Amino acid sequence: MKCRIDKTKCNIFLDLGKMPVANGFLNNKKNQNEYFYKLQCAFNKKLSLFQIVQFPNPKKMFNKNYPFYTSSSKFMIKHFKNFSKFIKKKYLKKNSIVLEVGSNDGTFLKNFNKKNSIGFEPSESVHKVALKEGLKSYNKFFNLKNVSKLKKYHGRVDLIFGANVFCHIPNQVDLIKSIDRMLSKEGTIIFEEPYLGSMYKKVSYDQIYDEHIYMFSLTSINKIYEKFGFELIDASHQVTHGGSMRYIIKRKSVSTKTRNLLKLINEEKKKEVDKFSACLKFKKRVIHSKKKLREKIKKILENKNKICGYGATSKSTTILNFCNINKSMIDCIFDTTNDKIGKLTPGTHIPIIDHKFFKRSGYKHVFLFAWNHKKEILKKENNKKIQWFSHLN
Ligand code: TYD
C-alpha cells in the first residue's frame, strides 16, 4: 500500500475487521443500508506514520447530522478556556487573527474576539450552534479550494488551531498548503491530537476508527512538516481524549526547537514509538485485550447479571464491532447527547438511552465507553454498588 503523504510503501499489520461509520448512529427504522468498510492499520516507516488503510469519504462522516458536540463535556470547555488564555499571553498580539480548523460548536473560538476569529466546520449540526453564538463559522472543509476564496485572510492569520481534527484530514499535503496560504510570517500552528505513544501504552485501540485516519507522534509530525518549510518547535502531553499531544509549529528559521521538545523526542525514541517493531507489539496486545474483554463479559452474564454501557462514543464502535459484542450482551448505552438518544449503535444496534434514566436503571455492571471522561462521569453517576469496567482494565 502507498502512503498518501509521500507515496512510499506502508506496511499493513493489523486488521480490525468490517466496520461501520463510527458516528453513524441509526434511526430505529432506517438500519437497512448500513455502510461498512475494512478497518486495517498500516505504518509508513519513512515517515514513522501510523495510519488506517481504508476509510469512508469524509462527507459521509462530517455532514448535516454529525453528533459530536465539544461542549458536551464541561472538562473540554474548561480545557479550551485555560488554553486560550495561555495562547493569548504567549503567541498573540491585540488584533491577531485566529483561525480554527474543525471549530465544531465554537467551544474554543468563543474565548477570542469574535471580529478576529474564524472557524471552518463542515458539519452543519455543530456549525449552526457556533453561528447562534455569533461566531464567524464557515460551513466548509478547510482546504486549498475553500481558503483560496478568502483572499483577505491570506498570510494574515497569526494562529491556526485544531483540536482532534488534523488527524481526520486524509490529504495532509493540501492541509499544510492551506495553512501556508493563510498563516502570517511569524504565525503559529498549534494542534492537539490523540497521541500514538499513549495509545500504545494504554492499548486503547478504540482510538482507531474512520475519523482518525492518522495517529501522529512527535517523530512523524517533525518529518512531515519539515518537508513543507515548517518546524516543530515545542510539544506537550495532554490528558484530553485519553492521551493527546499538543504540537507547536512555526515557519523554519522563525524559532528553534525547545529543550522540552528534544527531551520528549528522546523519550519517544527510547520507547520505539517511531519504529515498526512497536506496531507489532501493539498488535499482540490488542488481540489479547479482545480475548480478555470477551471473557470478562461472558463471566458477568453467566452469573446472571445484566450489563449496560455509558457513553456512546465513536470509540465504542471499534470495540463493539471488533470484539463482536452485541445487544444480547449489552442491553443499552446511556448518553447525554440529544442527537444520539433514541438511536442505535452503528453495526451492533444497541439502543442509546437518555442518561437521566441511568441512576434509576439499577445496572451494577457498566461498560464505560467514555473512559476518557471517567472523572466527570463518575462524579455524577457513581454509587458503591456499580462496577465500572472497560477494555482497558
Ligand atoms: P468522546 O469520548 O468525547 O468522543 P469520541 O466520540 O470522540 O470517542 O464522546 C463522549 C461521549 O460520551 C458523548 O457521546 C457524550 C457522552 N458523555 C456522557 O454521556 N456523559 C458525560 O458526562 C460526558 C462527559 C460525555
Q: Can you put this structure into words, describing what you see?
A:
It is a single chain. Strand 2 and strand 3 (49-52) form a beta hairpin. It is built from 12 helices and 16 strands. The protein is globular and about 65 Å long. By secondary structure, the chain is of the alpha/beta class. Thymidine-5'-diphosphate (TYD) binds next to helix 10 and helix 12. Thymidine-5'-diphosphate binds at residues 68, 72-73, 311-315, 335-337, 340, 355, 370, 372-373, 376-377.
Nearest-angstrom radius of gyration?
Answer: 21 Å
Unreliable spans are none
Kindly report the average pLDDT value: 94
Structure class: alpha/beta
What's the total number of strands?
A: 16
Overview features:
393 residues; 7-stranded mixed sheet; globular; 5-stranded parallel sheet; 12 helices; alpha/beta; binds thymidine-5'-diphosphate
How is the secondary structure organized here?
Blueprint: E1 11-20, E2 36-44, E3 49-52, H1 58-61, H2 74-91, E4 97-101, E5 117-120, H3 124-132, E6 136-138, H4 144-148, E7 157-163, H5 172-182, E8 183-194, H6 196-202, E9 214-215, H7 218-226, E10 230-238, E11 244-251, H8 259-270, H9 276-302, E12 307-310, H10 314-322, E13 333-335, E14 352-354, H11 358-361, E15 365-368, H12 374-381, E16 387-389
Parallel strand pairs: 4-5, 4-7, 5-6, 7-8, 12-13, 12-15, 13-14, 15-16
Antiparallel strand pairs: 1-2, 2-3, 3-9, 8-11, 10-11
The structure holds thymidine-5'-diphosphate (TYD).
